[in-house]
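FIELD: query
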Amino acid sequence: MKRSLLVLILLFLVLAAVGPVLAGPAADRVDVAGLLQGPSSRHWLGTDHMGRDILAQILVASRLSLGSAVAATALAAVIGVAIGSASLARRVGPLFTAVLNVLVAFPSLLLAIFFAVIFGVGAQGAVLAVGVAMAPSFGRLIQTLGASVMASDYVSAARLLGLRHSRVLTGYVLPNVAEPLMLSLTFAAGNALVVMSGLSFLGLGVQLPDYDWGQLLQSGLSQIYTAPAAALGPAVAIMLAGMTLSMAGEHGAVAASGVRRALSSTARRARSPLPAVPEEATVAEARGLRVTFPDSGGRPVTVVDGVDLSIGKGERVGLVGESGSGKSITALALAGLVPHPGQVTADSLSVSKVNVLDVRRSERDLKGRVAMVFQDATRAMNPVLRVGTQIAEASAGHDVVKALRSLKVANPALRARQYPHQLSGGTLQRAMIAMALTAEPDLLIADEPTTALDMTVQRATLQVLLEAVTESGSALLFISHDIAVVSGICERLVVMYAGGVVEDLPVRLLPGGAAHPYTAALLATLPSLDADRAAPLPVIPGSLPAAGSAGTGCAFAPRCPRAAERCLSERPPLAGLAPGHRTACWYPLEGVA
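FIELD: result
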């Protein structure tokens, strides 16, 4: 099948190249004695109304027919990619999305006829008309696939490292959609050939003395009953060429890998150094942080409610809680990465004295100040870029091999040349940490970075992370549901429940110094080597309330053994118990240090 397809493609390429040269004289030779003849040994498909050989005309028309289709497809791809890429931009995206929504509502043939009238009849006008008419399909493809890529962890990491939107598009989005784009190009070329021929058939395309297959089909239609070969010849050419291009689309993904590599090796980002960060004690601060998402009916649902959090320079803070407690959303809000349609409000929200709520300024000044290490390294690394390339993008002045070696990656020179799928989970996680730290961020956010690793690799990776953060001087916000892991590397523990902070205390006070019943319950669920193996594992009874359904009282009250009537009706504030220790509980545990 592939060999036959290749033969057909080569045949059409040869026809387009040499057809006009070899068959041109016969196609232009007028024979008044042989007008409108049927097929014969001299004229296999007969002659037209001027006695010219129809087969020779089909061969000559192959260059203009195929060339116009390719030109229209290329124009459609350029316009469509531009519109689709613009629709992914934060500011002008809604406008271009609205334009796409309107254009894709109309069939491409109808749009081609409309634009052919605007651009004028002729080959050039037809190319422009078909190119513009087919552009919305490419725009929608880039918008749909690009939106999923833009929502990926590795794009979020790239944005935090300071990459411009244009670099994210050329280095991250387009290479990852290159294969379906190539597939669509070949299908679109076949469609463009049919539409171009249709315009010529209707008299809106190629005009005499030039001719393409569509015009030959229209001329031969008058002989359909006396000499059907005159019409069937160009019709078969259109059908065969269109089918060949469509079938080539099924194998177009192979060629896309070359395009992907070319796109991924485009010009490297020139990143100007950020202004010096003032020597202040606080790196990140949130006051009254609130994040909402609309439900299916459009009503706002609060997932983070009134969070107060501060992180000092070089401090290691752990953020713990059950899944769904709002840990990751809080971290994303600090980094300015809460996905649409989430809404972030706060009394104040800043990182390195940059107001995160000021979108225009935070996009410009926050990049490079915050870096993020995600839970799943295979999703957080761009699959089409080499590991070394991604690390180098974090900071052009860093030695990639040295950065990997500092994270104790074995054979760092080889790993830098490999793609993410060629690395093990632990090595890939270390490479992601290296990429984050080479940007020299003021704040490193690690969102459950070792959950997907086995215990041995997890311990080694955590030790490497701790050493790297200590050496770099970056503040660390470590997110986990495992309070034991956090206690091993952090200095301070912030416990979240149902979107709010319920306790903030130094790690040195654990385990006996926990004041909130929820913190104590988390500690009680930790396995112990001397525990009775026959006894059931300790659990926290009940379940986390759904987002926005905690009510007016303490969210933990339905699961708390110490809950009283006041807990059900009044929400306790986050109040100080001792220096550096705060809890949100009406009846905190006794014996707090």
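FIELD: remark
The two ends are 77 Å apart (CA to CA).
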